[in-house]
Amino acid sequence: MQVLTLPSGETVPVLGQGTWGMGEQARRAADEATALRLGLDLGMTLIDTAEMYGDGGAEEVVADAIAGRRSEVFLVSKVLPENASRRGTIDACERSLKRIGTDRLDLYLLHWRGSVPLTETLEAFTELIETGKIRYWGVSNFDTNDMAELATLPGGAACATNQVLYNLSRRGIEFDLVPWCRDHHMPVMAYSPVEQGRLLDHPALKAIATARGATPAQVALAWLLHQSGTIVIPKATNPSHVRENRAALDLKLAAEDLAALDKAFPPPTRKRALEML
Ligand SMILES: NC(=O)c1ccc[n+]([C@@H]2O[C@H](COP(=O)([O-])OP(=O)(O)OC[C@H]3O[C@@H](n4cnc5c(N)ncnc54)[C@H](OP(=O)(O)O)[C@@H]3O)[C@@H](O)[C@H]2O)c1
Fold it and tell me: Which atom number of ligand 1 is nearest to the Cα of residue 200?
């Protein structure tokens, strides 16, 4: 598995697994955990979840998936903005730890910016690190101005990543947010990398996929994996999707493929507000 270095110096896999939509229906939970375990077997050992997903149900699926193999996993979860006060963040983290059946998260993110002052959330993150309940913290859905503000706050420079909507059809962040993160040696974690499946019928993706003996999903993922400093977290419950996504790491796009994708999905020429799902 290719790895990428966090600001702390720790390495994480460039291709991980998402869990949004998991844990919503009890009858599907066992299959969802099986899919995550298959992903772990294939080296996709970064798992992204959140207290929001399935109202904690996704974290319970993760608990099942990683039982007995916690040390293999780089575990990411998120606190909802309405819980992100100093006390609320700590309580939310403890609830997540209990649901996942672990004593620590590797990375804890503020899911998006809400009305609680960032300084409060940062104080809670710092306390959680001191007590060993989380190893690193980061943010999600932060635009460039939010990142700049965060960096000025006490402890704000320790932010490990910004998890944002990024795929071929959502390239707005390349104008300023991606360069900002790159300048600060901070990986971007790209969520909804196949636009929840909506990208996959695009003729440009289909044409490259046919030419390369790959699938449109693999082309979409390979394009993101080609962007330096990017961690990619597709969600898949279908085992053939899990295998296909892992194999995207072996697909190297040629210069002509990249040019065709730039033509079909032009990079931004001006600032666009951050999009989120
Ligand atoms: N921070 C945030 O605000 C935020 C927001 C959105 C998402 N996220 C995180 O990012 C993860 C990924 O994003 P996402 O779940 O929104 O969307 P996504 O990964 O772009 O798409 C997931 C959908 O694509 C399908 N799929 C996956 N691999 C495929 C393949 N090889 N071929 C065809 N279809 C494929 C999945 O089907 P099956 O499940 O049937 O296999 C599922 O329906 C989430 O699960 C979550 O962990 C974070």
Answer: 33
Q: Report residues whose beta carbon is within 6 angstroms of any ligand 1 atom.
A: 18-20, 48, 111, 140-141, 163, 191-197, 200, 217, 233-238, 241, 244-245, 276-277
Q: Specify whether 53 is catalytic.
A: yes
For residue 274, being part of any structural domain is answered with no
pLDDT in tens, 157-203: 999 999 999 999 999 999 999 999 999 999 999 999 999 999 999 99
Q: How many domains does the chain have?
A: 1
Three-state SS string across 208-277, please?
Answer: HHHHHCCCHHHHHHHHHHHCCCEEECCCCCCHHHHHHHHHHHHCCCCHHHHHHHHHHCCCCCCCCCCCCC
Q: Tell me which of 166, 224, 235, 246 to substitute to probe ligand 1's pocket, judged by most ligand atoms within 8 Å of the beta carbon.
A: 235
Considering the domain boundaries, does residue 97 fall inside one? yes
Domain assignment of residue 56, given as a range: 3-264
Q: The domain that contains 127 carries what CATH number?
A: 3.20.20.100
Q: For residue range 62-88, what is the model confidence (pLDDT) as tens digits?
A: 999 999 999 999 999 999 999 999 999
**Domain assignment present for 50:** yes
Residue 271 lies in a domain: no
**How many angstroms separate the alpha carbon of residue 4 from the centre of ligand 1?**
21
CA–centroid distance, residue 20 to ligand 1 (Å):
7
Say what percent of the chain tops pLDDT 90: 98
**Mean pLDDT computed over 46-74:** 98
CA 54 / ligand 1 centre spacing (Å): 14
Residue of 43, 104, 34, 81 whose CA lies nearest to 62:
34
